[in-house]
Each structure stands twice: as C-alpha cells, then as structure tokens.
Amino acid sequence: MIRKLSSTQLTVDVVIGGMWFLLNAFVASGGTVHFAVAFGMGLALALRRVSPTLALIVAWTFSIGQVSIGATPMPANVAILPVLYATSAYGTRTLRWVGFASTFLGAAVITASLLLPNFVRTLLSIGPTVISGDAVAIFRSSIVVFVGSAAAFLLSWTAGLLTRIWRQARENRQAVAVVTEEMVQEQERVRIARDMHDVVAHSLAVVVAQADGARYLGSKDPAATDAALATIATTAREALSDVRVLLAQLRHSQDDGPQPTLVDLDRLYEQLRGSGLTITQEVSGTPLALGTGQQLAVYRIVQESLTNALRHADRDQEVTVHFGWTVHGLDLTISSALPPAKTTRTGRTAIVGAPAAGHGVAGMTERAALVGGHLTAGVDSAGGGSRFVVHAWLPERADVDPVVTA
Predict the structure, then answer these.
(1) What are phi and psi of 280, to 5 degrees?
(2) In this predicted model, what pLDDT tens digit does every residue of 166-225 receive, in sequence order?
(3) ∠ Cα 272 370 180 (to 5°)
(4) Is the C-alpha dihedral spanning 390, 391, 395, 399 positive or negative?
(5) Is the alpha carbon torsion for 163, 169, 172, 176 positive or negative?
(6) How do residues 236-277 score in pLDDT, each as one tens digit?
(7) Range in 30-34, 49-53, 200-204 the model is least confident about
(8) Which CATH number fits domain 259-406: 3.40.50.300, 3.30.2170.10, 3.30.565.10, 3.90.180.10?
(9) Pick from 49, 61, 237, 273: most CB atoms within 10 A?
C-alpha cells in the first residue's frame, strides 16, 4: 500500500531516515553488521508513512538477519517503534493486526537473542537434570526483558491506533460540518423557492384578474380600465421588488427580505378586492401579540388562500377570513365558495374549480408546522353549497422558536 504524501512530508521522512542511518552507522560504528542494520532501520524509518507495509517488511527482514548471525540488539533497532506506530496509524486493517502480533513476536526475538544463549550454556554446564540458581535467574531476566520489550512495542502501536482514531473523529466532524452546511443551504433554497411561489403566484393572479377585467371593459368604462391598469402596475412593481430581494438572497445569502406581518393584511385585501374578490374579515376573541414568525405564517397562509380563491372560487360570493383568538393562540379559517357543480358527459356531477393539492397547500402546511401549529384544507359541502375551507391553528408561541425569514 502506497500512501499519498506531500513533497514536504516525503522530504522530512527521507531526511529522518538518512540521519538515523548516519547516526548509527558511523557515530556508533561497530563494523559491517552495524552498518547493515543501521541502513535497514533507516530505510524502514523513511518508508513508515508512505508505505507502512514495506517499512514493517524491511524492519523484520533486517531484524531476522541480525538475530540469525547472532548479533545482539543495537540502538538502531529503536526505529522499530515508529514503524509499529505507523502500522496502526496509517496501515490497513490487516496490517494493524500484523503490527499488533509483531509487538509480542519482536519482544520474544529480543529476549531470545539477549538471554537464550546464556540460558542454554548454563543448562549444558550443569546438566539437564539439575537447575542451578544461575539458570533460574536467567529465566526470570527473560521474563522481565520480554514484558518490558512487549510493553514498549505495544505502547508505540497503541499510540498509533489512538492517533488513527483521533484523525478519523476529526474527519467525521468535518464531514458532519459539510453535510450540515449543505443541509442549511438546501433548506435556504427551499425557503426561497417557497417565498418565490408565494410572491409570484399571488402577484400574477392579481395581474391576470385585472388584465381580464380591463380587456372586458375596454372603452366602455375608461375609469375602471385605468384603475385596473394602475393596480396591475402597482402589483407588478411590488412583485418585481420582492423577486429582486429573493434573488439577492440567492446570490449573497442575505438575511434581510420581505417579512410581512398582520398590519400588512389590509393592503393585501385591497389588492385582491381591486381584482374583483369580495373579502370579509371576522374577528372573535381578544387578539394576542404574536411573534414575528407567527405573524409571517398568518400572512402567507391568508395570502395563499385568497390567491387560490381568486383563481378558483366563485367571485360572486364573498370570501370569509375568520380570526378566532383564544387564550393560547389563533384559530384561522379562510372559506371561499366554489363554482356550482357541473354534470360531466358521463353523467357524473363534479365540483369544478377546487384547488388541486400542490405547492400552495403544502407550503401553507409547512409554514404552520414551523411555528408549532397545524393546517388542513379541503372541500366542505355542509350547509348547502360547496366551499373550500382552509383551517389553521397557530399557537401564540412555538415550543421551539424557528429561524424566521420571509
């Protein structure tokens, strides 16, 4: 396994390996064996990050050769510690466990190379059936050397494993941060798309209604035609201004935007009344001081409901907007009459003009949920005639204050 390293990292590793070789080959010179071991351990040290597998193979190859000729451990062999560190910090799963096994196998090799010859010579000198105090002492020393070497190797391997875990945790945190940022950006795009729908759909509905009225009036009523054209111009300018703000948010992620509240409902009513819609507002109970988020949700729900009524409802009948205030929040109901039922070619009676389930109802439902409320919308045929009723319950305060932008 060859890992990708920067040129700086490669240079640093090569320099460290070369310095280790020079230090052990010449400063602590002991002949050809010292030179060869110093070269092997320096090479393993240089390879430890770019290829932990090769580094471990090189270290084991020179160590086995060192032991096979009867040479005792040398200072250069200390390089095995960073090599074991690299196997657990940068190696594959298999290499990590090979490195783990090497901690105990290496300790056994060191123990055997240091004490086994003396132990064998002692046994041969006293006979196989007699155990002297020297043999017991050598055996105890072997245990101490084995445990000490294994502890040093295992500590280095464990440090590499902890480094790997820390690095993976850091990468996971970075990945979570990236995903969170993408989620926030996606939510922002959805919010802007929803507001674009609210602004553009409402404004275009008003413009279409006024344009139809002006076309039918023509030269019969110039004053009414002028009023309709004035309404079209005003609505188009306001829509253009709102769209520019929304597009600016897309470009610059700005937080400022149109945030209508309850005081803006009168202007909304006037726009739609000028388009031929009859609107009656009813209020019961004592109004509460709703937060900005709740007021924005109320405005958008009323705006969407009245826009749907302008497009689909029977304009000869009034649209009722009822504000039912309670001690805990607002019971909001918007009711509009649907056009009379018509008989289809198959002989079935169908209600025409009812708003289809689409982005409008879904957007209203989402806005109500964001402030801790709920919303239902559908056809109500009770009491004669069919009416499309939007009913929303909005608490005075949501359990969790949402981030409010228009």
Answers:
(1) -125, 125
(2) 999 998 888 888 887 777 667 666 666 666 666 666 666 666 666 666 666 665 666 766
(3) 125
(4) negative
(5) negative
(6) 666 666 665 555 555 544 444 557 889 989 988 988 888 788
(7) 200-204
(8) 3.30.565.10
(9) 49
The domain ranges of the chain are 7-178, 259-406
Residue with the two structure tokens 């445990």 = 147
The Cα–Cα gap between 206 and 236 comes to: 9
